Amino acid sequence: MxxxxxxxxxxxxxxxxxxxxxxxxxxxxxEPGTILALRATQxxxxxxxxxxxxxxxxxxxxxxxxxGAPWTGSETGLECMTPSWSLExxxxxxxxxxxxxxxxxxxxxxxxxxxxxxxxxxADEEVVPAVLTVSLTQPPNNPELxxxxxxxxxxxxxxxxxxxxxxxxxxxxxxxxxxxxxxxxYTTAGAFDPWRxxxxxxxxxxxxxxxxxxxxxxxxxxxGQGATWTTVEVNL
Length: 236
Fold this sequence. Notes:
The chain is mainly β and 236 residues long. It has 2 helices and 19 strands. The chain has 2 domains: 5-135, Sandwich (Immunoglobulin-like), CATH 2.60.40; 145-235, Immunoglobulin-like (Sandwich), CATH 2.60.40. The protein has a 5-stranded antiparallel beta sheet with strand order 1-11-10-4-7, with no helix packed on it. A 4-stranded antiparallel beta sheet has the order 2-3-9-8, with no helix packed on it. The N and C termini lie far apart (46 Å).
């Protein structure tokens, strides 16, 4: 493996299994206690430190651990089949740093390891962990998602919904930045239709109930390479 890859959030996989793969649940409605996405950035590739961060909903404290092989599921949870180590966590930003020059990987194994598998857990055992795979040979390739439009305008200038739907449009750094991207949409109330689009697609937020503030999470991925996200609060 010579590229950075990001696993789908494990909570989504578990929900699909629990629903018998019938997708009876609403995939865009996110509940507190969820790790939505992970991201790695690297300013000085390929040998500079990796900055790792998590996008969460209602998770205020996390811990990070690194494995030299894919985490393996067992009856007691996820296990590392190689030596693993913990990372010091910045709880304010839910982030951590990996200094590749100071990893405890034995020198005789370094030439055989092309990727690391980074796991993040919430302090609450009810939080389903997520895993990020990072390449040791290629820097992260994160989409250049820079914001969203609500009904075609910047959220700062948006006057509120005119009906039961809000058009949500991702904003990209350049006209070509969305090519090959898959974008997922999550909300704390209502539902997105569709909840996932490719390239520069647009979606609709279907409103429900009388919520006064709804948080939207827009996550863009180059599958198998990198991810980025933006969030916005919508006052109804």
